[in-house]
Amino acid sequence: MELRTCRMCGKLFNYIGRTTPFCPKCMKEIEEKFDLCKKYIKENPGANVHTVSEQTGVSVKMIKQWVREERLLFSDSSLVGIECESCGANIRMGRFCSKCKQTLSNNLTGSVKKPEKNQTQDKASAKMRFLDD
Q1: Which of 64, 78, 79, 81 is the most exposed place for a label (fewest CB within 10 A)?
Q2: C-beta of residue 21 within 8 angstroms of C-beta of residue 6
Q3: CA proximity to 78, closest of 112, 40, 113
Q4: What are 83-107's pLDDT values in tens digits?
């Protein structure tokens, strides 16, 4: 069992392999804030991040994090925009715009070298061999 300090309240808690560095009490509060934001966005589809933050009391940073994690999704008519981490373009969700995603994908595909077949291997060495007793 591992003890960790909660990033939100500073108290020690039993860390059980969670992906979040928050204690159960703070996680519950965060989920309640998330539900509140989600409900507000559903009722006010044209709201932007700052309006949602003002009306719900949730920080802009937290809302942007949920958008980057693709937990929150704003409508196309919304004025919401976060910046692409690569080029700074305005995007609705995730971390990168479609152009940067494509570039990253192409770079990753090109960086993986496919193994070449060994052309120098002769037929004699490719045969199965047995040990004589």
Answers
A1: 79
A2: yes
A3: 40
A4: 888 898 888 778 888 899 888 888 8
